[in-house]
Amino acid sequence: MIRLIATDLDGTLLDDEKRLSPDFWEVEQQLVDKGILFTVASGRQFHNIAKVFERIADRTVFIAENGSYAYHAGTEIFRVALDPKHVHDFIRIGRQVEGAGLVVSGKKAAYIESREPRFVDEVIRHHDALEIVDDLLQVEDDVLKFTLADFGDIVTNTAPRFEAFAPHFNVVISGRYWMDITDKTANKGTALRHVQAHFGISREETLVFGDYLNDLQMMQEARLSYAMRNAHADILAAASHVTESDNNGFGVTETIKRLVLASS
């Protein structure tokens, strides 16, 4: 019996135009009626995710910042911050990447210093609490995630500069232009385990959906794991199943209706 459903957001629950399935709210209500806990697990900022799901925020679990933060109905379930010294190292290296934009994601807000229009537009799409500052090194907040945007080639241009940190931090390419760094103990899988423990829900009672590399650990925390048809090859290999439709065909809600709600 499924008691918890966790899904990634961009490229998974949302289509490429950042829209939910037209019947999402009806499907979510049916899950509530069956006593199933709905969880959104994203690399996005908590404030941004909560706004997308404002109408059901009081009953939804939010896993934000690639698993650095988990929250439900006024209760902080999990949080792990980066050491400020290391954040400053990331900032100094990131500033050396030509054309790159840096995001320091804190608990209170996200902070940027670049005012380049394309970068700012992309950051605004994923952050509601956002501050433009003169110097990221002066930010005072619990930093949950450091992000670098590279519109050139994130794999060959940016990632090699941070390889030395990989043994001690989660250094993950989380999208076409994005690379995230979080504490070694922070990922969507770790956060999901804390959520499961908080509600007394087992791995066998969990269903997850994902599409990209930052969803990999989450795949391992559920008996039923679905890669989106449009997923990265490593996610397709790691998941126990693949959705029939991609995110533009709203494969998450389609699968939930067929797998979980068909008997209703």
Overview of this protein structure:
- This protein is α/β, with parallel strands linked by helices and about 260 residues long.
- Helix content is about 30%, strand content about 25%.
- The strands form two sheets. It has an eight-stranded mixed sheet with strand order 5-4-3-2-1-12-13-14, with helices on both faces.
- α5 links the parallel β7 (about 110) and β8.
- The longest helix is centred in the last third of the chain and has 12 residues, at about 190-200.
- About 45% of the residues are buried.
Keywords:
single chain, 264 residues, alpha/beta, Rossmann fold, Hypothetical Protein, Haloacid Dehalogenase-like Hydrolase, Chain: A, domain 2, 2 domains, eight-stranded mixed beta sheet, 10 helices, 30% helix, globular
Task: Give a quick precis of the structure.
By secondary structure, the chain is an alpha/beta fold. 30% of the residues lie in helices and 24% in strands.
Helix content: 25-40%
Number of strands: 14
Number of domains: 2
Please, what is the CATH homologous superfamily of the largest domain?
A: HAD superfamily/HAD-like
Classify the beta-strand content into a percent band.
15-25%
* CATH fold-level topology of the largest domain: Rossmann fold
Give the C-alpha Rg. Answer: 18 Å
Low-confidence stretches: none
Structural class comes to: alpha/beta
Main sheet overview: 8 strands, mixed
User: What's the N-to-C terminus distance?
Assistant: 13 Å
Mean pLDDT: 95
Blueprint of the fold:
Blueprint lengths: L3 E4 L1 H5 L10 H10 L3 E5 L4 H7 L8 E4 L4 E4 L2 E5 L4 H11 L6 E6 L3 E3 L4 H10 L3 E3 L10 E7 L4 H5 L10 E5 L4 E6 L4 H12 L6 E5 L5 H4 L4 E4 L5 H6 L2 E2 L8 H9 L5
